[in-house]
Design goal:
The chain is of the alpha/beta class. About 35% of the residues lie in helices and about 20% in strands. The strands form three sheets. The protein has a six-stranded parallel beta sheet with strand order 7-8-6-9-10-11. A six-stranded mixed beta sheet has the order 12-13-17-14-15-16, with helices on both faces. Strands 3-2-1-4-5 form a five-stranded parallel beta sheet, sandwiched between helices. The longest helix is centred in the C-terminal third of the chain and has 17 residues, at about 405-420.
C-alpha cells in the first residue's frame, strides 16, 4: 500500500456497518487509525459483521446514532446509500468533520492503477468483462467495488503490477475528494435513484464526479450514442475516447474493446473472452424451461430502461414480475413496448400501485402478496412458448437485502416449481 502513514493515529468514525463499512473499518485499523462504527440496526442484525472485525478495539454503536459518538472524530467515512440527511452526517457537518466515501479511503492507499466504471445500465457486465480481458491478456486484475468485494477489502492484497477494475455507483462518488482513476468509463446515464436526487441533472452530476480529478495522463471513455453524456468530453481534462460506433458489438462489448485498446490489448483477445462469456447471475439468467415456459432471472434490472432492454431481447411475449422499492422513476416509459411484448404484469412491493397506474391499458395487471405468489400467478398466465421474466424496475430493499437475494429467492421458487411440475 501507499500513503500508509496518513490515517495513523487519526480518529475515524465509519457510518454504516454493511459490507463496505466493515471492510473500510478493518483497513483503517490496519493503517493505525482509531476506528469506531455507528449503525442504526440492532446488534443482532449486525452480529455476523461484528464477528468479522479484525479487532475488538473497534467500537461499534448499535441501534441508534448519538452525537457524542461522532464528535471529536478527525474523519467520517460514509457507507453508500446513507443520505446527507442522516443524523450522523448532519452531526459530522456540524462539527466540521471531513466526510469521505469508502472508495476514497481505499484509493488513497491503493498501489495499483484503477479502471473505474459507472453508469445507469451495463456497468456490472462491462466491469466483469474488462477484468476477464485483462486476465486473458496475462495481466492480474482485481474486480471489486459495487460488484463483489468492497474496494477496501482488496487493497491490502494489491501490488503495483495489478489492475483494479472498480464498479462505482453515484452514491460512492458523492463523497470523493481526490479519487482519480487512470481510466474512467461511463456506460450511459438514464433516470435512476430519483428518490435520492432531485432530478436527473443532479444524478448525472454525481456520476460525472468519476472524472473530477483526472488530468491529461488519464483517460475518460464515453458512449457516443448517449446524449446524456454528450457534454462530458468538454468538461474533462483527460484524454477522451468514445465507444458505440461498432455495430458488430453490443454497447458493453464496445466499451470493453475501447478500454482494451487504451491498455494495448488486442481486439482478438477481447473477442475470445466475448465468445465464452455466459453472462452474469441475476442479469437475463435463464433459470429453467418446463411445460413450454422459460423463466428468466433479471433481478439486477432496477431501472425501467433495463427492463425494456430485457423485453427487447426476448423473442416472444412475457409475463413480467415487477415492483419493489420505488426509486422515483417514470414507469410510463415501458407502456408502448409493453403493448407489444408483455402478456401481463404481476406486481409486488411498495411500488406496485405506482407501476399499476403507469402500465394499465398496455397489458393486464395483477398484484401478488410476495415473490412466490407472483411466480405462481405469472406461470399460470403464461402461454406456451412464452417467458416469465423477473425484471423488477425497482430496488429490492422493501422485501430483500439486495437484488442478489431477490434473484436467489426467485431461482429457488422456480426450481421448486419445476420439481413438482
Amino acid at each position: 500500500m501507499r500513503n500508509t502513514e496518513y490515517f495513523k493515529g487519526k480518529k475515524v468514525t465509519v457510518i454504516g456497518f454493511a459490507r463496505s463499512g466493515l471492510a473500510c473499518a478493518n483497513l483503517l485499523y490496519q493503517l493505525g487509525a482509531g476506528v469506531r462504527i455507528t449503525d442504526s440496526k440492532p446488534a443482532a442484525a449486525l452480529a455476523v459483521n461484528k464477528a468479522q472485525l479484525i479487532s475488538q478495539d473497534i467500537r461499534v454503536e448499535y441501534g441508534s446514532h448519538t452525537e457524542d459518538f461522532i464528535s471529536g472524530s478527525d474523519i467520517a467515512v460514509l457507507s453508500p446509500g446513507i443520505p446527507d440527511s442522516a443524523l450522523p452526517v448532519q452531526w459530522a457537518m456540524k462539527h466540521g468533520i471531513p466526510i469521505y466515501s469508502e472508495i476514497e479511503v481505499a484509493w488513497s492507499v491503493c498501489p495499483a492503477p484503477v479502471i473505474a466504471v459507472t453508469g445507469s445500465n451495463g456497468k456490472t457486465t462491462t466491469t466483469t468483462l474488462i477484468g476477464l480481458v485483462l486476465e486473458a491478456a496475462g495481466r492480474h486484475a482485481v474486480v471489486c467495488g459495487n460488484i463483489g468485494n468492497p474496494f477496501s477489502g482488496e487493497v491490502p492484497r494489491l501490488k503495483g503490477t495489478d489492475h483494479v477494475v472498480l464498479e462505482v455507483s453515484s452514491f460512492q462518488l458523492e463523497k470523493i475528494k481526490s479519487f482519480k482513476p487512470h481510466i474512467a468509463l461511463i456506460t450511459n446515464i438514464n433516470p435512476n435513484h430519483l428518490d435520492r436526487y432531485r432530478n436527473i441533472q443532479e444524478y448525472a452530476d454525481a456520476k460525472k464526479r468519476i472524472f473530477l480529478n483526472q488530468d491529461a495522463r488519464d483517460y475518460l471513455v464515453l458512449n457516443s450514442s448517449d446524449p446524456a453524456t454528450a457534454g462530458f468530453a468538454e468538461q474533462s481534462r483527460a484524454q477522451v475516447s468514445f465507444f458505440g460506433e461498432d455495430t458488430a458489438l453490443n454497447p458493453n462489448q464496445a466499451a470493453v474493446v475501447r478500454v482494451a485498446q487504451i491498455l494495448g490489448i488486442s481486439r482478438q483477445v477481447c473477442s475470445g473472452v466475448f465468445s465464452v462469456f455466459k453472462g452474469l447471475e441475476h442479469r437475463m439468467e435463464e433459470v429453467a424451461r418446463f411445460n413450454q415456459v422459460t423463466f428468466i432471472n433479471d433481478s439486477k434490472a432496477t431501472t425501467v430502461e433495463s427492463a425494456m432492454w430485457a423485453l427487447r431481447n426476448i423473442p416472444t411475449r412475457a409475463m413480467v414480475i415487477a415492483g419493489g422499492k420505488d426509486k422515483g422513476l417514470d414507469y410510463r416509459l415501458i407502456f408502448d413496448l409493453a403493448k407489444q411484448k408483455v402478456r401481463g404484469f404481476v406486481l409486488i412491493g411498495q411500488a406496485a400501485q405506482k407501476i399499476k397506474k403507469a402500465v394499465e391499458g398496455a397489458a393486464p395487471v395483477e398484484e401478488a402478496l410476495d415473490l412466490r405468489d407472483a411466480v405462481m400467478k405469472a406461470y399460470r398466465l403464461a402461454q406456451p412458448g412464452e417467458y416469465v421474466l423477473l425484471s423488477p424496475m425497482c430496488a429490492s430493499y422493501d422485501m430483500f437485502a439486495d437484488y442478489e437475494e431477490r434473484g436467489r429467492v426467485f431461482k429457488k421458487i422456480v426450481k421448486d416449481l419445476e420439481a413438482h411440475a
